[in-house]
Amino acid sequence: MNLRTVMRVGGAVLGLWAALEGATLQAREGFTEDFASDPLVSGWAIAGDASLFQWDPAGQSLAVTWDSSRTNSYFHRRLPSVVTAADDFTFGFDLELSEHAVGIHPGKPGTFQIALGLIRLADATAPDFQRGVFLRSRNLVEWSWFGTQPDGAISASLSPAVVPADGRLPWGYSDTYRVLETGVRYGFELGYTATNRTLRIQMTIDGEAAAPLAPVVLPRNFTGFRVDALSIHSYSDAGQDPLYAGSVLATGRIDQLRWSGPGPAVDRLRYEGNDMQRRVVFWSRRGWRYQLRASGDLKEWDDLGTPTDGTGGELVLEDLTKLLAPQRYYRVEAFLP
How do residues 312-322 score in pLDDT, each as one tens digit? Predict the structure, then answer.
């Protein structure tokens, strides 16, 4: 349980809770990480090979190595709540590459990606997750860039992708053929709009706006995603088909890593009414479902009515039993179908 508000109404003490699956009760949250202080003491963590991510206090940035010969590794920060295809959100970052080479590992002469974006941490760190193997990744909303293949057969491309929860086709995907040079500061902003299911990408080069990049439009039969962390990814190249295998070794700096999300699944929770009319009012999110429950002793809980779909606005759940009780507690449970 994440919140308790106790109030006195009509002589009876009533308790009000919200219980959420994968969410915390915070105000709508956005953040920018400028790396002025150690990010590992302010909410960031590393899964995988920690040597690939080094905070540079002098340069106030994060030095990153993308090395596909290493295990899947993530420099990540948890989001305030689970984010789905029903939510609007944006994330962005600044990138300056110092070195970049593809096709350098034995038996893997093709290109391979460097990446950053949204993951479901439990999926991305699972033993069976392989980004270089088709249909073995899931729950991703990511920016990725592939350098030009050494034989020139594949050109450099910015290739954002949205991978559904089950990993199956169709994916949301687009290519814009674009070379990223070393020593140049690039800025990227990715914004997703739920109403048209479109991920748009803006790019700057040394602070100046660049030519437009192709948006990612989710196919009509795209099955949806659930993500819970913003991450810089260094993917392993293990498991690829030898006929098409690629590899990458790159170094660079990430700065101004930023996020703006939909806020909590339950927000501005309050109680209205009296002993004869009891209502719980709160702001909801689309894609979530809500169940009002009641208890007289905080041990046994009863469902009141049936689950209600979130609206993206204010939602009212009412106790229609009209039960007069000396003490009754209410709990809102939010969950994803």
Answer: 899 999 988 76
